[in-house]
Design a protein that fits this description.
Blueprint lengths: L12 H16 L9 H8 L3 H13 L3 E4 L3 E4 L6 E3 L15 E8 L3 H7 L7 E10 L2 E10 L15 H12 L6 E10 L2 H7 L6 E11 L2 E11 L3 E5 L4 E5 L9
Antiparallel strand pairs: 1-2, 3-11, 4-5, 5-6, 6-9, 7-8, 8-9, 10-11
Helix pairs in contact: 1-3, 2-3
């Protein structure tokens, strides 16, 4: 390989470098292949290593690269779309739900969640933790907050903890007649616990999807789902918004 020099460009140098790197990924490297080290890549493109790191970080954000300590930077596999929330009138855990229950605890929720659930600030609720995996890769983590009033018969079920308890809460929740959902999406940063579960570094960009489930004119449950921003995009249909786990090199708004 010869040394390539960046041409003068109006956009930031790292952004122009990102374009060149993306072209190289398409033409010279295979999925799973480890890229040359930063020193060699910086020399090839005639840039400082700080500029190179900015470009690599952007490509990782777009899902083109995986960067792991002790392994290096590898070319990410092709991504495939998986619709999330396509059924606008279904409880969590209903048939076709791709989430896997992990655990269920009983604790006081964050103040904002208590306000949305219209519960006392110190009143404990059931917190169901679920995960989402696509093609063997963790892509989302969810906390589902359920007040006692939504699952009044739960105490009669012999499922003290763990996934069994989570499934019990979901079964009881489905006894209610769901009136609808309200969903909001915002960009956030991965907290330490989410980052560990999603195999990301703390502070990595994530999409936070908050869903309010309404029954009997009140909030019966509140879901806070955290998606990896490098694998997800939003699409908007005629009837409801959806989140897709997108496994392809392109990333665009639809």
């Amino acid at each position: 390989m010869g040394t390539l020099q960046l041409e003068s460009a109006p956009e930031p140098k790292y952004w122009h470098l990102k374009t060149l790197l993306s072209q190289a990924l398409d033409s010279e490297f295979s999925v799973g292949e480890i890229l040359p080290n930063e020193r060699d890549l910086a020399a090839r493109f005639g840039v400082a290593r700080a500029t190179l790191r900015q470009a690599l970080e952007q490509l990782e954000l777009e899902g083109r690269l995986h960067r792991r300590r002790g392994v290096g930077t590898t070319v990410a596999p092709p991504r495939m779309g998986v619709a999330v929330g396509a059924t606008a009138h279904a409880w969590p855990g209903a048939a076709g739900d791709a989430w896997q229950p992990v655990d269920c605890t009983r604790a006081t929720p964050p103040a904002a969640v208590a306000t949305d659930l219209d519960t006392d600030a110190e009143e404990p609720v059931h917190i169901v933790r679920r995960s989402r995996v696509s093609h063997g890769q963790p892509v989302a983590a969810e906390l589902l907050y359920v007040p006692d009033a939504s699952v009044p018969d739960l105490s009669a079920i012999d499922a003290p903890s763990g996934p069994a308890r989570a499934r019990a809460v979901l079964r009881e929740l489905q006894r209610l007649e769901l009136e609808g959902q309200e969903r909001a999406v915002e960009l956030g940063s991965a907290r330490a616990d989410d980052a560990k579960e999603l195999d990301r570094l703390p502070g990595a960009p994530v999409l936070v999807v908050t869903t309010r489930y309404v029954a009997a004119g009140r909030t019966a449950a509140l879901s806070v789902a955290t998606y990896r921003a490098d694998t997800c995009r939003l699409t908007f249909g005629d009837s409801s918004s959806e989140v897709e786990i997108h496994h392809g090199p392109e990333q665009r708004a639809s």
